[in-house]
Design a protein that fits this description.
By secondary structure, the chain is of the alpha+beta class. It has 3 helices and 5 strands; from the N terminus they run E-E-E-E-E-H-H-H. The strands form 2 sheets. Strands 4-3-5 form a 3-stranded antiparallel sheet. Strands 1-2 form a two-stranded antiparallel sheet. A hairpin with a 6-residue loop joins strand 1 and strand 2. The protein is globular, with a radius of gyration of 14 Å. Bound molecules: zinc ion.
Length: about 100
């Protein structure tokens, strides 16, 4: 099912590491590996570093944990405590919406 992608305003699309759908990157958050090798949640998309994209959704986050999509994207191991931190941050974000 390919659709004609010729649109006037090209929207940058990124693939969610959880559900694997392509979405507007502005609607997504990034999980970022900083140059200091820290893994952090980047909700603005403006920080530097290697990022894994994810829908702002706990479902997608959990899928990405299970399928190791974040680790694959960042090309690094993600410790459990980092996942826990990201999960807490995501819970806060979901509450604010
Ligand atoms: Zn998703």
């Amino acid at each position: 099912m390919r659709q004609n992608m010729k649109t006037k305003n090209k929207i940058p699309m990124r693939q969610c590491t959880g559900c694997r759908e392509m979405k507007n990157k502005k609607e997504m958050m990034r999980i970022l590996k900083t140059p200091e090798n820290e893994i952090t949640l980047d909700t603005t998309g403006r920080k530097n570093g290697r990022g894994a994209y994810l829908c702002v959704s706990m479902d997608c986050f959990e899928k990405a944990v299970k399928n190791h999509g974040i680790e694959r994207s960042l090309k690094t191991a993600v410790p459990d405590e980092v996942y826990e931190e990201l999960k807490k941050e995501l819970e806060n974000i979901e509450k604010c919406q």
